[in-house]
Specification:
About 70% of the residues lie in helices and about 5% in strands. The chain folds into two domains: about 180 residues, Rhomboid-like fold (Up-down Bundle); about 70 residues, no CATH class. The relative contact order is 0.10. Helix 5 crosses helix 8 and helix 6 runs antiparallel to helix 7. It has a two-stranded antiparallel sheet.
Length: about 260
């Protein structure tokens, strides 16, 4: 269990117990697009409300299964930002397409986590109902098509399909910006600096490389194991000065 996944699970469960449907608190925290100017806090608070036990159960199962690996991969800061951005873009899309609806649930944010998972592990098989294996990428595509159809046709009853689509959109935008930022950092690093013997044997670089060499990959999940080996190969080829901040943070997390 990773830090922000645990905090989000606890927060959702606590709010579910305190704010049941029909209570004053529940009504104050739900997101109604047409009333957002009177209740500006609701684009955040609606993510922690749920309409019933099955609603919160499925959302928390999704967060529990997809969240820890994604948080381990991108880091806690990027994970919680992606989660919140996904929930907010779910509210934004609902504002334009379902202005009169009352929106509750973490689904938009959890859908963003699912897209983030599929971004890094597109071919990872997810077993629907524990039986049917579906690649993560295909699951995202399937949910996208279903949400578009259901949102336009009105099928699916009270499900906030446009919030789901907004969650996908927010995560996609966030990851694009994150990847572009990382690419920009790599372009700024000169080949000479990346290959510099001084950079490779400087005190901090040497200490980092020693700590990273001591990572016991046998104890890691196979996905993290492959990433550690890739980064070690990069260090061997171009030195630790060539690593991006995300790669350094990843290696440090594997030590903790």
């Amino acid at each position: 269990m990773t830090p922000w996944v645990l905090r989000l699970l606890i927060a959702n469960i606590v709010v579910y117990l305190l704010a049941q449907p029909g209570t004053i608190l529940y009504n104050l925290l739900m997101f109604i697009p047409a009333a957002v100017l009177q209740r500006p806090w609701t684009p955040i608070t609606y993510m922690f409300l749920h309409g019933g036990f099955m609603h919160i159960l499925f959302n928390m199962i999704g967060l529990y299964f997809f969240g820890p690996r994604l948080e381990s991969r991108v880091g806690s800061r990027d994970f919680i930002l992606l989660y919140l951005v996904s929930g907010l873009t779910g509210a934004v899309l609902s504002f334009f397409l379902e202005p009169g609806a009352a929106i509750v649930g973490a689904s938009g944010a959890v859908f963003g986590v699912l897209l983030g998972f599929a971004h890094f592990w597109p071919h990872e098989r997810i077993y629907i109902w524990g039986v049917l294996p579906v690649p993560a990428r295909m699951m995202v595509i399937g949910f996208t098509m279903l949400s578009i159809y259901s949102g336009i046709s009105g099928a699916g009853g009270a499900v906030a399909h446009f919030a789901h689509l907004g969650g996908f959109a927010g995560a996609w935008i966030y990851l694009r910006i994150r990847d572009r930022r990382a690419s920009s950092f790599r372009r700024k690093a000169t080949p000479e600096a990346a290959r510099s013997p001084i950079a490779r044997i400087s005190g901090k670089a040497a200490r980092d490389e020693k700590r990273w060499d001591e990572i016991d990959i046998a104890k890691l999940h196979e996905i993290n194991r492959d990433e550690v080996e890739r980064i070690r190969a990069k260090i061997g080829d171009r030195g630790s000065g060539s690593l991006t901040p995300e790669e350094r943070a990843f290696m440090n997390r594997m030590i903790d």
